[in-house]
Amino acid sequence: MSLRPQLLAGLGLLALPAVLAFFLVKGELVIGFAVVNVLLIVWSVYTMFSPVETEHGHGHAAS
């Protein structure tokens, strides 16, 4: 089964409502760090599963 990066990133963004609900209940600043962590994880997963762009024709041997 092939998963698209957009689908995986979208699934990761489902964590944001939980973080928002926790912020509304607790109201602490540390929850901002949780939002940053969720966004970093989503970006990392998107980057990890995105296709790799390669350049050819610069005199380097392909391996």
Mean pLDDT: 76
Largest sheet: none
Order of SSEs: HHH
Would you report the number of β strands?
0
β-strand amount? under 5%
Cα distance, first to last residue? 27 Å
How many domains? The number is 1
Shape: elongated
From the alpha-carbon coordinates, what is the Rg to the nearest angstrom?
Answer: 18 Å
Structural class comes to: mainly alpha
Helical stretch count?
3
Note down, in words, how this protein is organized:
This protein is an all-alpha fold and 63 residues long. It has one domain. Helix content is 65%, strand content 0%. The protein has helices at residues 5-13, 15-26, 30-49. α2 runs antiparallel to α3 (30-49). It starts with a helix and ends in a 14-residue tail after the last helix. The mean pLDDT is 76.
Task: Give the helix/strand layout.
Blueprint: H1 5-13, H2 15-26, H3 30-49
Helix pairs in contact: 1-3, 2-3
Concise description?
With 63 residues, the protein is an all-alpha fold. 65% of the residues lie in helices and 0% in strands.
Provide key terms for this protein.
single chain, 63 residues, mainly alpha, 65% helix, elongated
